[in-house]
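Data card: per-record layout.
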Amino acid sequence: MSQRPDITFTRLTKIAPDAILAHMSDPRLAEHMPLLKGGWDMDACTAFIAAKEACWARDGLGHWAILADGRYAGWGGFQKEGEDWDYGLVLRPQDFGLGLAITRKALAFARADARIPYVTLLLPPSRRHMRGLERLGAEMTGEVTYEGEVFRKYRLETP
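The structure for this 159-residue chain is written out next.
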């Protein structure tokens, strides 16, 4: 029986940009990321990291780099979108199986943070398996269009 890795969160600036670039350049990510258009290069990677750091500066919270036993597994976390704290998670394909464990840890963080009474999740229609989200207590609130793409919006209370 394999043991689950130790999941930790750190800032994206602590990760080698080449690792993030390789991750975001993987064509398998585009299957469920309709906003991921065009190719990624180091300029796009640098701009991405800067944009995520700007969220930290503005809101005191943002997306983390996610480590599994100390190695980069992807990025995700909470980003303020209007009044909502939106949760996002983008894993390297070889780490897709860690999504639920990472999400549980992130939600524990949200529940302990008084700024976050609930989180929202925007998922593209290509995502068909939602039982994990439903087991966590997320409820679909409708559909929204973001940058011309349709997403299903879910809400999860964090009492």
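Known properties of this structure: The radius of gyration is 15 Å. Helices lie at 17-24, 42-59, 99-112, 131-136.

See the next section for split statistics.
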